Amino acid sequence: MRVSVIGCGHLGIPHAAAMAEIGHEVIGVDLDQAKIDRLNAGECPIYEDGLPELLSTHIATGRLRFTTSLAEAAEFADIHFLAVGTPIDADGRSYDTGQVFGAARALAPHLTRPTVVIGKSTVTVGTSRDLGALLARLSPAGEDVEVVWNPEFLREGHAIDDTLRPDRIVVGVPSARAEDAVRQVYAPLLANGIPLFVTDPGTAELIKGAANAYLGMKISFINGVADMCTAAGADVQQLTEAIGLDPRIGRGGLNAGPGYGGGCLPKDVRAFTASARTLGAAEAATMLRAAEEVNESRPTAALRLIEQTLGRPVDGVRITVWGASFKAGTDDVRESPALAIAALMHQRGATVTVHDPHAVPTALRRHPELDYCETLEGSLAAAELIVLATEWPHFREADPKALAPLVADQVLVDLRNLIDADAWRMAGWTVRQLGRPAQE
């Protein structure tokens, strides 16, 4: 099939590359000419595991190309994916769908034949209904333009794998014709046994919000329990392994750490909380807001652990933070817990140097007040304490014996419970891990 992907960011670029990978002819659309030029040259403007290779492969074959022209995309494609951003609105609680409706308004005059527009962005319930009415009114094809909502469940750092091998595909469809179009575009994945969950558009919109809100609550729950473990001298790692064996709970996502971040989960929990209030589900809104409050407290909780390890405030201390991206596998630093902790320590008077294998350039744009280092070894120069804040394998695989001579004091606070603490202690390091008892 011929498909377009409108919006070339952390969602759109991986989706376009994956659609080319499963055999479609794909045109990506974005307003940023410089970004389009880079993409057509096979250069990836974001970091995502496996994406640069997939992009260059399908640019070379001609199966994938990019343009700034919606008219060109409309002439070319039979199905249009909307993958534009839906940032949090000025009220801080709901989605700003301006880009979604703006893209639809710009596309509509060029839709002269029956087509299906498939929304991928995360939106407030009712958006697909309103978008369908808008396109039917503004498009020459009228009601032959239908809107399907197909929310993404991508984990940044795993976006390609999650697109090509998802655990499910959710679609909210207005008609049998629209469902048939979806089945055709995803036929290669469905043939591999990927389940297709078909529902009405409103339910599909709520499924995405509910999934991310539940994940946010699960993360906040275990981080709250980690605080209890710290106070009790208990071990959160052993606790999570034990309760994770209960099939009603499960182990996935039950990892204590510095909190959730990124461009999706924080805003999705906020917006779902706001939806609960709007729909009159006050108790649900209270529960969701509690999860947010736990997550918002993580930088302060991390600072408390760091200062307990130091035995003094961070004012005047030289500290290196390992990790800038909100998670491994991506250069996305939006609402990154690692950078929030780094910025808080800087505000408290510490001299903070940040190292990340891929996210230094994006972090520098967001937090120019911090110092940065491109190399692991260089980041340790004169450091009095290391804070491991993003779970890159790059840090797990570091050699504690080789690194020890590079550091003023061999002290490491592992906020991800990532390393083998015993091995580091044997190499002479003092190690503290989140929610785990101190060992001298």
Automatic annotation (TrEMBL):
<dbReference type="InterPro" id="IPR001732">
    <property type="entry name" value="UDP-Glc/GDP-Man_DH_N"/>
</dbReference>
<dbReference type="Pfam" id="PF03721">
    <property type="entry name" value="UDPG_MGDP_dh_N"/>
</dbReference>
<feature type="domain" description="UDP-glucose/GDP-mannose dehydrogenase C-terminal">
    <location>
        <begin position="320"/>
        <end position="421"/>
    </location>
</feature>
<keyword id="KW-0520">NAD</keyword>
<dbReference type="InterPro" id="IPR017476">
    <property type="entry name" value="UDP-Glc/GDP-Man"/>
</dbReference>
<comment type="pathway">
    <text>Nucleotide-sugar biosynthesis; UDP-alpha-D-glucuronate biosynthesis; UDP-alpha-D-glucuronate from UDP-alpha-D-glucose: step 1/1.</text>
</comment>
<comment type="similarity">
    <text>Belongs to the UDP-glucose/GDP-mannose dehydrogenase family.</text>
</comment>
<keyword id="KW-0560">Oxidoreductase</keyword>
<dbReference type="InterPro" id="IPR036291">
    <property type="entry name" value="NAD(P)-bd_dom_sf"/>
</dbReference>
<dbReference type="InterPro" id="IPR014026">
    <property type="entry name" value="UDP-Glc/GDP-Man_DH_dimer"/>
</dbReference>
<dbReference type="InterPro" id="IPR008927">
    <property type="entry name" value="6-PGluconate_DH-like_C_sf"/>
</dbReference>
<dbReference type="InterPro" id="IPR036220">
    <property type="entry name" value="UDP-Glc/GDP-Man_DH_C_sf"/>
</dbReference>
<protein>
    <recommendedName>
        <fullName>UDP-glucose 6-dehydrogenase</fullName>
        <ecNumber>1.1.1.22</ecNumber>
    </recommendedName>
</protein>
<dbReference type="InterPro" id="IPR014027">
    <property type="entry name" value="UDP-Glc/GDP-Man_DH_C"/>
</dbReference>
<dbReference type="Pfam" id="PF00984">
    <property type="entry name" value="UDPG_MGDP_dh"/>
</dbReference>
<dbReference type="InterPro" id="IPR028357">
    <property type="entry name" value="UDPglc_DH_bac"/>
</dbReference>
<dbReference type="Pfam" id="PF03720">
    <property type="entry name" value="UDPG_MGDP_dh_C"/>
</dbReference>
